[in-house]
Amino acid sequence: MLTSCPRQAAAVRPQRKRDAVACIRGHTTEKTRSMLELLKDLWGFMRERKKFWLAPIILVLLLLGALMVLAQGSAVAPFIYTLF
User: Fold this and answer.
1) In tens digits, what is the pLDDT along the chain, a chain of 84 residues?
2) What is the value of pTM for the model shown?
3) H helices within 49-84, ranges in order?
4) 2 touches 9 (CB < 8 A)
5) Crossing angle for the helix pair 54-70 and 17-48, nearest 10 degrees?
6) Which end of the chain has fewer CB atoms < 10 Å from its terminal CB, N or C?
7) CA distance 63 to 61
């Protein structure tokens, strides 16, 4: 049986818009699951090895990354360079 999702079979294109949306939603769900699995593994590592000092470092890196992505095209962008 042929699938309607290009992720699963590259040669097959979705026939209807609904199939394409379902495929995109499935891909997004898959990405979200893999991200949650990564976070669970990271937390498990930090808890088992008592590396809780990594949590603030990871949090600051994530916040700086988010700041840079969100302010990329805005008027705040020149002020970000003063942080570095």
Assistant:
1) 445 555 555 445 545 655 555 566 666 688 888 989 999 999 999 999 999 999 999 999 999 888 888 777 777 777 777 776
2) 0.53
3) 54-70, 77-80
4) yes
5) 150
6) N
7) 5
